[in-house]
Structure formats: C-alpha cells, structure tokens
C-alpha cells in the first residue's frame, strides 16, 4: 500500500486530506509542522509528502531539502496560498514533483497524487528494463563459457540483489572491474553512480581528501569545498580497486565509515551520512599483506562478506577461443574491417599460451594483430609477437631443463630491469607490458619471498 504524509499547520486541512486519501486506498499519516514530520520520516517510510509551504519554523521547501539529503527518491507536493511563479519554479527546481495553490479542489489534488504514482510506476518499469538489458549485456563484456566463468555469473546473480560488501580477488587483467560493474548494473542501485578509484594511483597525502572530501581552507590549495568520492557515489556503488595499496592510516578511517555509514570531510568534525555499496578488488595475496601488518585484518573481514575469486585465463582455457572471437568482432568493427579470423595453427598457439597478463593481454594482442593484418582476412601467428611475452624453455648446459613459464617470466622481468638500470618504464616497454603489470608482478615476487628491485 502506498504511504502518504500530510504536513500542514492547519488542523482542518490535515484531517480533510487524511480522510480523502484514506478513502482512496492510501495509508496516510499527518504532522502539524516540519519538525514533527521529520521525526515521522525517521521511523517510517513514505512514498509521497504533501506539505504546506508556509509553516512556523521550517517551511515546506526547507523540509523537502532536509529530507531529500537522505532519501532522494521520496516525492513532494507543495501546497501554498502564496502562488507566485518564482516560488513555484524554486520548489520544482529543488525537487518537488508539482506545486498547487490554495484554494484548490480535492479532485485536482487527487489527480496530482495519481499522476505522481503513475510516474513512479514508469520509473520502476524503466529500472527493471535497464536491469534486464544490463543483465543481457553483461555476457558480452565478461565473456566465457567455462565452469569457472559460469560460477562467477552465478555469484553475480546472487550478490547483485543485496547491499553486502564484495571482495574480488584475481590476477591483474582477469576482469575484476567488469565483474564489479556487472554487480552494480544488475542491482537496485543501477540508476545511481558507479564510482571507481585505483588506490595505487592516489598519493598518500591526498587519500583522505580524495575519499572523504575537504572544506575550503582546510589545507594549502584548498580553495573551495570539495565533495569526496564517497559523497559522489552516495546511493550507488563505490569500487576500491587495488585496495591492498591503501595506506594503513587510511584503512582505519575506511573501517569506521563501513561501520557507521558516515564520513567526515577534512577540516570539519561534521558527520555526513552516506549510503554506499562497497566493492573492493586486489591482485595480491591479501593474507600475506595481513601477516606483514600492511593490511588490517578487521577491515578485510568487513570487506570480505561476499568473496569472488577470478581464476587466471590459463586456468580457464575453454574461455580463450570465445574471447578471441569476441575481441576480433570488437576490433574489426572499430577499425572497419570485415570477416577476420585466426588460422588453426595460430589458434592452437593462442590456446596453449599461458597469458600472464590474462584477458587484458589477450585483448591488447588481438587489437595489435588486427592492425598488423590490414586488409588480410587471416590473422597469422606473426601478427601476435608472442615471443616477446613468453620466454621459451631452454637448456641450462646440463641437458634439457623443464622450467615453468612463470619462472621464466620472472627471470625475463629481472633481466629487463637489470639491462635498463632498474628503469621500470623502459623495462615495461621492452617487455611489451604496462608499467602497472610490471609493478604487480614485482609485488607478487616480493610476496613469494623474492626481492624487489628499486624503482626509478
């Protein structure tokens, strides 16, 4: 049953409206002023507030602004005897559904209320349609048919309907961000913001301001008040990518936000309530970070309510061919080519390759191959340059040595760093990978007990 709240300082109007809409099948409560209305709104949920404009203390527009800070979807109809165009425009601009002047007929007001709920029904249908479309679109972005990928689809279906925090773990390039976006787009928050931040890209000194915002003058160069990313994502989903790189000092502050649902901007003690669904990702062994006291265990437990582990591409080889076909279609369309395909020898080589950069590496190499091939319809192995990405098993002088590709990859990375005098940018270019992938690999080796080469 739809719920209405009537707010008016005139007793007769309150009673009249309450009786009229009760007969119309609504559940109606009333309040004699804005402060009484706010108390009712704290304890009960209402779909629409019908409020007088001019009341003692807080007026109707001020009431609407206060309520909509915490519930942007609640509807407001403003009633007033002071029916100026300026007042009407102000009320509508600030979020009122409509505006009616005294004296008015009850039938007119009833038609406005009916129109509001017709509009709400239309919005709800659009949300459902958007969720259905995004559900279908999900399978064209996070692509795969392996059992592992099907299991991830199943997990997305389960968790999308809730607001619990999600912790997505997997190597760099496996598609963690796509999974986070699919969760958001198939949730009730789909029409609200989806904000993402890479924790490794924020300087430690700016972390708190970036997430929580700051007041004007709170520090040097704070020339105006800044709304942080938590406020920007209010009502929606906030993706904390590479959360393992978050400074330990910030982890305690994030934990408090998750516990209390409130943030405090830098430069003030005022608490601001936020309604945000958190999704975090990591590409490192988070348990080793906890053991080394570089990540708080209490924050991990708070975030890890619904864990999703994304296996590397080498562990779901059934997905490789369908991904190849997907990316060929994507890039031949982008570059205006037609009917590209790989020959059998190339497909066999791609299927056997271990893809240390996972799906992102495959996508990049398909795009490169499309460009190299030009008007040629067949993508041959020469267009992929796999030899720069995957070292071959060789001979150590004592006969054939079976060294894992991962170990050879590690040797190649350290060799490139040595040859470039530890210049990570140069080394990454030499290896044909991104600086981020190189950095992630070095962190992985560190967690495995290796040494870190100094950056430059």
Assign an overall shape. Answer: elongated
So, the CATH homologous superfamily of the largest domain? P-loop containing nucleotide triphosphate hydrolases
What is the count of distinct domains?
A: 4
CATH architecture of the largest domain: 3-Layer(aba) Sandwich
**How many E-type strands?**
14
Unreliable spans are 387-403, 452-456
| Radius of gyration over all CA atoms, rounded | 29 Å
Q: How much of the sequence is in beta strands?
A: 5-15%
Mean pLDDT: 84
- Within the CATH hierarchy, at the fold level, what is the topology of the largest domain? Rossmann fold
| Helix amount | 40-55%
Structure classification: alpha/beta
Q: Tell me, what is the CATH class of the largest domain? A: Alpha Beta
Determine the N-to-C terminus distance: 64 Å
Strand order of the largest sheet: 2-1-3-4-5
Largest sheet: 5 strands, parallel
């Amino acid at each position: 049953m739809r719920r209405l709240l009537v707010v008016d300082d005139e007793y007769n109007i309150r009673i009249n409206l309450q009786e009229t809409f009760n007969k119309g099948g609504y559940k109606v409560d009333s309040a004699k002023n804005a402060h009484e209305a706010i108390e009712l709104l704290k304890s009960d949920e209402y779909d629409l507030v019908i409020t007088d404009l001019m009341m003692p203390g807080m007026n109707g527009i001020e009431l609407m602004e206060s309520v909509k800070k915490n519930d942007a979807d609640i509807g407001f109809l403003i009633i007033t005897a002071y029916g100026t165009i300026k007042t009407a425009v102000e009320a509508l601009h600030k979020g009122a559904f409509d505006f009616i002047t005294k004296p008015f007929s009850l039938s007119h007001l009833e038609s406005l209320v009916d129109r509001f709920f017709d509009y709400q029904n239309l919005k709800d249908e659009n949300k459902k349609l958007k969720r259905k479309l995004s559900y279908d679109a999900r399978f064209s972005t996070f692509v795969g048919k392996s059992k592992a990928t099907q299991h991830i689809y199943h997990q997305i279906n389960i968790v999308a309907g809730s607001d619990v925090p999600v912790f997505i773990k997997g190597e760099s390039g496996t598609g963690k961000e796509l999974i986070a976006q699919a969760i958001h787009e198939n949730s009730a928050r789909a029409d609200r913001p989806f904000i993402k931040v890479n924790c490794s890209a924020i300087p430690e000194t700016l972390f708190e301001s970036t997430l929580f915002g700051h007041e004007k003058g709170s520090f040097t160069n704070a020339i105006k008040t800044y709304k942080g990313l938590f406020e920007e994502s209010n009502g929606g989903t906030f993706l904390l990518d590479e959360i393992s790189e978050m400074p330990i000092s910030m982890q305690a502050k994030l934990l408090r936000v998750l516990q209390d649902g409130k943030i405090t901007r830098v430069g003030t003690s005022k608490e601001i309530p936020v309604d945000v669904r958190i999704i975090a990702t990591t590409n490192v062994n988070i348990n080793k970070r906890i053991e080394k006291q570089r990540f708080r265990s209490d924050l991990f437990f708070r975030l890890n309510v619904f864990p999703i582990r994304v296996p590397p591409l080498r562990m779901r080889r059934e997905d490789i061919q369908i991904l190849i076909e997907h990316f060929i279609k994507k890039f031949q369309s982008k570059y205006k080519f037609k009917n590209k395909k790989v020959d059998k020898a190339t497909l066999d080589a791609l299927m056997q390759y271990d893809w240390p950069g996972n799906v992102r590496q495959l996508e990049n190499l398909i795009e490169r191959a499309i460009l190299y091939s030009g008007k040629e319809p067949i993508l041959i192995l020469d267009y992929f340059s796999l030899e720069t990405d995957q070292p071959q098993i060789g001979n150590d002088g004592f006969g054939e040595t079976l060294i894992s590709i991962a170990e050879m990859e590690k040797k190649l990375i350290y060799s490139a760093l040595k040859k470039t005098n530890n210049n990570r940018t140069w080394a990454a270019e030499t290896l044909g990978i991104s600086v981020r992938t190189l950095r992630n690999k070095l962190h992985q080796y560190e967690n495995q007990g290796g040494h870190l080469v100094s950056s430059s």
